[in-house]
Amino acid sequence: MHEALPSAMREAVDEFAGHLAGVRNRSAHTVRAYVGDVVSLLDHARRMGCAELAELDLTVLRSWLAKQRTMGAARTSLARRSASARTFSAWAHRAGLLPTDVAGALASPRAHRDLPSVLRADQAAALVEAPGRSAPGASTPDTVAGSRPRVPASGGRLTAPGSASGPTETDTADGDAAAHAAGGTAKAGTASGATADGTAEAVVLRDRALLELLYGTGVRISEACGLDIADVDHARRVVRVFGKGGRERAVPYGVPAQRALDEWLRHGRPALAGPHSREALLLGARGGRLNPTMARRIVSGYAEAAGLPPVSPHGLRHSAATHLLEGGADLRAVQELLGHSSLASTQIYTHVSVERLRAAYRQAHPRA
Known about the structure:
Blueprint: H1 7-22, H2 28-47, H3 58-70, H4 75-94, H5 121-128, H6 172-185, H7 191-217, H8 221-225, E1 232-233, E2 238-242, E3 248-252, H9 255-272, H10 292-305, H11 313-326, H12 331-338, H13 343-364
Helix pairs in contact: 1-2, 2-4, 3-4, 6-7, 7-9, 7-11, 11-13, 12-13
């Protein structure tokens, strides 16, 4: 669709993408989404007879959004596309490509925000303690199901060579599935069996560290997978996280997460580390940086195996924020911990707590 636009419009789209990435420091995902929206808008404008970008007006913008709605776009999608159009219009006006900021008066549909589902504190504890007790998925029996992972006698603090970042492992899913199932197929006493067994034990330690980090810090899954060894301050029990827009923040973690990280770094990571590991904190079974897709499978697999409600890494983030507020944490402090740029994003968790209180009241009070 980008190629179907007139050359001047294509050049404007490319410059806008560079502005988002280089000046606004938006993530690659955000740039793709905004550019896709703008290409769709300009293609619609072209079909309505706009031969040049300067001919774009509010009527065309509203027509484009109306068409998106008739095609079944959700309110959240419409809200994002409106934001994309306003951002592009403001940039194009500043760049001298539009005579006025035509989208400045564009109304944005108010996105309906469902309250996030969260685990109870006991359910969250059961989930993070599941590795070594239950399988990470109904169809992949864990090497050490029903017991704590066996820790190799040798080990010690790891010092990984290489640069601070490494390639994301692309074949992690197959590698981790094989490692989880290794205990059921490897024969004790053989060299291959010992290798597979050690990998499976390392994967279990990795899974425990991942779950403890996600719930203990409330970080996003992309932030957890992007951590390097140097980002963990063991003395202060703090991780350095790079969030949306490259914003850096320090997030504390508790003693259980510290123990899980120590076990992983001493006895798990050395068993998985390879030439492509570099400084990545969390590794896939084949030695590359753990990717978010596999991490999501790990979380949902352990939740299913432990008989818990379906939960994602973001569900653990929701749960961590809710439990912090229920425990008396200040809303501003929770905002900083989660890396929210707006307090409005954090306030939804106060609604979750109120709804849980109402549910308990309705269930327990005789006059409810």
